[in-house]
Amino acid sequence: MTMLAARAHAHANIALAKYWGKLDAGGNLPAVPSVSVTLDALTTTTEVRFDSNLCDDQLVLNDQPASEPATRRMVAMLDEIRERAGIRWRAAVRSSNNFPTAAGLASSASAFAALALAASRAAGLTLSESQLSDLARRSSASAARSLFGGFVQLPAGQPGSSFLAASRLAPASHWDVRLVVAVNSRKSKAIGSTEGMKHTAATSPYFDAWVELSRELAPRVAQAILARDLQALGQAAEQSALAMHACAMASDPALVYFEPATIACLRQVRALRESGIAAWATIDAGPHVKVLTTPEHLQEVMRAIANTEGVLNVIASGVGGDATVELVQS
Ligand code: PMV
Q1: 116 contacts 132 by C-beta, under 8 angstroms
Q2: CB atoms < 10 A from the CB of 142, how many?
């Protein structure tokens, strides 16, 4: 016997004010506020079917059985959903990205947002946007933001409170900005964000300064978005990314996510700006660079970044919408 199955679509997002660091209290609560833009070009589609005939959860990612660590994280979310829904059935999960996961592009955000949405719907739960965001956040804090389209904020966690959800700052229709993703490596990242954050918080002498700066940058980023001020947004976003990496690089041993192409892209972005093109860079826990620009300057930025030494390929994206879910015939 099977229950209803559900399929969800969620977009990746890129933080313009970065989250890096967790509260010590546990529960995967961020130590700093973050603000992101949802990317329409990068999408995860996930289908979940609870089935009384299954002995174990079956997880297939991009047509391959999921790795052991990925399985553990997904089963933890499924267990939480089963407990809330009062069901015991195991689930068959199929998830695929329309972008190269192996290249180390952020996929946990869209993956856990899509899983939270599809699995809770398939289990018959009716959760509010905030409850879904909080559920996704327990697996990956950036996933809390991928439930929403447009521009999204996630506050820092509060000690003593285990609930934390992202919220929509402005819908996708608020502002047509573009992101150019420079794919700078085909390797998966060496140190994942959870491990990297813990190591940074434990050993970087700049961690407290990073937390303090983030409290100032996140409202500046949010304000610049609301005012549609690209220069103010670009400056604050670039500072957030570079301060996060500087803090990680000062860890012991050093945590360096950059490759030569990362630096080459930063130089290219600066040169573009000096020639009057709107371009600001942001970088997550990997070597790839995402360049914020306008629709008018998109082609020029894409050409320049594609021709930058070490860049393997470029992906252009606009601002994406909310995650969606539909029931499917099982
Ligand atoms: O949500 P996680 O655990 O994958 O961490 C995301 C960390 C960064 O991508 C570097 C920053 C962010 O805010 O998305």
Answers
A1: yes
A2: 28
Over residues 132-178, the pLDDT tens digits come to 999 999 999 999 999 999 999 999 999 999 999 999 999 999 999 99
Ligand 1 centroid vs 160 CA: distance in angstroms?
A: 22
Q: State in Å: Cα 330 to ligand 1 middle.
A: 34
Q: Are 309 and 127 in contact (CB under 8 A)?
A: no
Ligand 1, residues at Cβ distance < 6 Å: 15, 18-20, 34, 106, 108, 140-142, 193-194, 284-285
What gap in Å lies between CA 231 and CA 241, rounded to an integer? 15
Atom 6 in ligand 1: residue holding the nearest Cα = 142
CA 77 – ligand 1 centroid, Å: 18
Q: Residue 29 carries which side chain, given as an amino acid letter?
A: L
Rounded distance, CA 63 to CA 97, Å?
Answer: 10
**Strand boundaries in the chain, DSSP class E:** 2-17, 34-51, 58-61, 64-65, 90-97, 151-154, 167-170, 178-183, 280-282, 289-293, 313-317, 324-328
Query: What number does the ligand 1 atom closest to the CA of 284 have?
Result: 10
For residue 201, the tally of other CB atoms under 10 A from its CB is 20
Could you read off the pLDDT of 47-86 as tens digits, one per residue?
Answer: 999 999 999 999 999 999 999 999 999 999 999 999 999 9
Ligand 1 centre and the CA of 192: distance in Å? 9
